[in-house]
Structures are given as structure tokens and as C-alpha cells.
Amino acid sequence: MIPRRPVSVQSLGGGLGALALAALLAGCAATPMRADDPFEPANRVSYKVHEVVDGNFVKPIAQAYVDYTPKPIQKAIGNFFGNIDDVFSVINDFLQGKLDKAGNDMGRVMLNTGFGIGGLIDIASDAGIPKGNEDFGQTLGVWGFPQGPYLFIPLFGPTTVRDGSGSLVRIYLGPIGYLPDVPLRNTLYGLGGLDARASVLGAQKLAEQAALDPYAFIRRAYLQRRQYLVYDGHPPRPKDDDGDAPEKNGGGKAPPDKDGK
Length: 261
Description:
By secondary structure, this protein is mostly helical. It is built from ten helices and two strands. It has a two-stranded antiparallel ribbon with strand order 1-2.
């Protein structure tokens, strides 16, 4: 494999870490802390920064992409990156002991890669083979790792310490990062980010229109969704009434459903 160049990532991480620490120390002292969002003051600052940068630069580009790029091209790009996601879903299926899902995801990868022009055409979905949608954050949850504090990272969005750790593993192991052609590699990174941003335009609009506090709305929706995924659709009943802190002590394997999965 061709090694990555870690210098820019480390320098960026160090700068972001220093800024986050400064914001945390400045904002967290006078505000009551939530169990699931102890860094809420710093997270809200990050959310406001995200709104400015995303709203003025990223969102307009994503909207133009949706409005003017032919739908078949958008679908092919989404299928390509979805096929890569299926590869990692296979790995996480095995790590979680979900052999039925592993078989489905492996079949998807083989079918879409071999007969779908490298994943540009999603033949597997047309054939009725479901996506597993497993990731490293879910695997850590199934293994019992606690979700850790909620975080909001500008241009990345909501995450937790556990999910963020899983995302770093996913990014490091991703095949695009090992491409020797730097312009091609960066183009694919850009397309992947654009596809991901375009896919949540509708959800963002809903959050802005339906919630008095979009930050709290996004936090609630994200944490509940992640818990739902960790438990394969069978999350335990939340201990609190508002459902805003769905998971305190980690994940675990979901109880088997009627099909024994």
C-alpha cells in the first residue's frame, strides 16, 4: 500500500484541538452541564461557526450540485461511495458477529463492483439485497464502549467520541486515501463530501423549520438515531422523559428479532 502523508492532518488536528480547548475552558465554567453534552457551550460555538461557513460556502455548492447536475450522475456518484461503505459494512458485520448481514453486504459488493461498473450502478438494491449500514462507531457500541460526550465539529457535523473514533478509522482505512494520483484522490474526496452534504439538505431544512433550537433538535435526532442503529432497531427505553439522552453507558448487542438476527 502507498503510505499517507500525515503532516497536514496532524497540524490541522493540533490547531483545532487548541481552539476547542480554549473555547471549552472559556464557555463551560458558568453553564450547567448535560450528561450527554458536557461541552455544550463549546459545541454551540462550533455550530454557529458551522452555520456561517456552511451556509455561505458549502450549502450553496451542494444546492447547485443538486439543482444542476443530471440525476443519473448524482445517483452514480452516490452509488460509488455507497459501494465503498458496503465494503466497510462487511468488516463491521463480521466484527459484530452478524453473519447474515455480512453475507448480504458481501454479495452487494461483489454484484455492484463486478456487474455495476465498479459500483456506479446499484444492481444489488434492485435485486432486493438490503444494505447492512454498519460502521466502526456501531461496532464499538456493540462491544460495550460508551458513546462519550456529544461533539459538533464544523463542516463535519454531529458526532460523539465513540462515533468520531470510528470515523477516523474509516477515513484512515478508506481506499481513496491510498491512491497515488493526488489530483484524482482529492477530486474523489471532494465528490464524496459533496455527495454527503447534498444528501442532508432536506434534513437541515426540516431542522431549521421545525425546531426553535436547531442545535438541540440535531443533537436529539443524532443521538437517538445512533442508538437505534447500535441496537438494530431495538433500543432500550430511555431513562428520561424527553428522550434527549438516549444512551449513557455504552451500547451492546440488540436482542434478536423474529428472524433471529
